[in-house]
């Protein structure tokens, strides 16, 4: 069975990995300092990853404002949810706004529009 994490957390870790990739790529460019053209390509590529990450972080900010703040029934902490179903950021309790889906097994496909 696949493991689910809160969507915001998932996007945040994706943004973090983009920064990491960006730095690794830029660091890789140092090995090509005798080939300025290759080094430049590495630097631009690395910079591209970091810019992409900034955009993703900006997107998280946008999503966060759209997210609905709810109090988790399981751990009583305020958490944010996106879409019809999401997961608590703290205890991974599945949350839903749709009474029809209550009690059903957590499934991200409920978020897809028909
Ligand atoms: Zn919780």
TrEMBL record:
> What is a single Pfam family found in this protein's UniProt entry?
DUF2614
Recorded topology in the membrane: Multi-pass membrane protein
The places in or outside the cell where this protein is found are:
Cell membrane
Q: Which organism is it from?
A: Bacillus methanolicus PB1
What Gene Ontology cellular component terms go with this record? plasma membrane
Q: Which parts of the chain span the membrane according to its record?
A: 12-32, 38-60
Q: Where is the signal peptide?
A: none
Q: Which UniProt keywords apply?
A: Cell membrane, Membrane, Transmembrane, Transmembrane helix
Q: Which family is annotated?
A: Belongs to the UPF0295 family.
Name listed for the protein in its UniProt record: UPF0295 protein PB1_03900
Q: What is its main location?
A: membrane
